[in-house]
Structure formats: C-alpha cells, structure tokens
Design goal:
Number of helices: 4
Largest sheet: 9 strands, antiparallel
Enzyme class: hydrolase
Number of strands: 9
Organism: Chitinophaga horti
InterPro entries: Formyl_transferase-like_C_sf (IPR011034), MPG (IPR003180), MPG_sf (IPR036995)
Family: Belongs to the DNA glycosylase MPG family.
Radius of gyration: 16 Å
CATH class: Alpha Beta
Shape: globular
CATH topology: 3-methyladenine DNA Glycosylase, Chain A
Helix content: 10-25%
Protein name: Putative 3-methyladenine DNA glycosylase
Structural class: alpha+beta
Strand content: 25-35%
Length: 207
Amino acid sequence: MAKIARDFYEQQDVCKIAKSLLGKLLVTEFNSMRTAGIIVETEAYAGVKDKASHAYNARRTARTEIMYAAGGVAYVYLCYGIHHLFNVVTNKQDVPHAVLVRALEPVEGIDIMLERCGKNKLDYTLTAGPGSLTKALGIRTNYTGIDLTGNEIWIEDGPSKLPASQIVAGTRVGVAYAKEDALLPYRFSVKKSPWVSRGKGLDSLPL
C-alpha cells in the first residue's frame, strides 16, 4: 500500500485527519521485523485552545515541544509512568495539533506482537487500547520526533476507503480535567469493530 505523504499530516482540520486515519495501516519495522494494524480508533487534540491538549494555553515544555513541529512526526509520551502513547503531530509548524491512535486491528506480524506482549494467543486486548498497541508494535518514547514518512514508523493507505457511515464519534477518554472540552466529540472509531478500546462515550454524539 502507498505510504501517506506529508501533505496529509499538514492539513488544518485535526478532526478531519483523525477520521481519515481510520482504516489506514499503522506500520513499524524495527530490525527487519514488520508489524502492522488497521487503525480503528483515534482521538483529536486541537492545540492551544483545547483544554484536553498537552499544548493548551500555548504550553511548551521539553516533552511537548515536538507538538509544535510541522505535521508528519510522532509524539510519544509516557502515561502513568507505564504506557507509551503514540500520537500523530498534524497541521503546520507552530500549530500544536495531534491525533492519538487508540486502537488497532492487527494484520501483520501478529506472532511478533504476541511475543512482545507476553501473550500465547490472539485476543482483543492485544491492540485495543493506546498503551497496548504501542507495546505490540514496539513503539516507545524514544521514537518521539521520528519522521512518519520514513522507514521505521509510518502509515499506509488501507485496502479501501472507510465510508463515513462506518465512523462513529464520541467523547474522549480520561480528560475530565478539561471540563467543557471533555464533552467535545473528538473521539472516532470504526463502527462495531471489536478492536475498539473500552470506554464510555462512543455512539453518543453525531459526526
């Protein structure tokens, strides 16, 4: 499949990008080991005006500085000191938008994923959740800033374009601190996919 070009990531509408990522393949290739999964759930974070964003109110720290890069690089951060969460930086330079990839349907290198996660057999917990999918694909915080048009982590077109009727929207997970912004319909998933992560809020809001 064709690798996604940089101009895709530099679009200005972060929710449009978050929806467009559904059905595409997130791929890693480390030490000649390729793993890939179809993206089935995403969350959009709209920069300095979004109270749920790490860049809210133009916050710039050593961790978040990569969010201000031009779209097409990775932002991987550690959550609760345990989970490595993979985000796609979007928009133009100095506009800190990002899309969190929350869940995948594994399609390539499943044996490698199982070994990385210490599992004996495939089940939905392998990649249904942002911390689970990064462990399965071998993505860690040291990959923050990596070029997503390169040859270690990238995104490819899926086998077919996902129709809008197959996309559902809802509220984001774990952002109650964002008050009214916690209610924004910025979480998107593939309708009825069993690989979507647990969490309330999907199917509750219109696209």
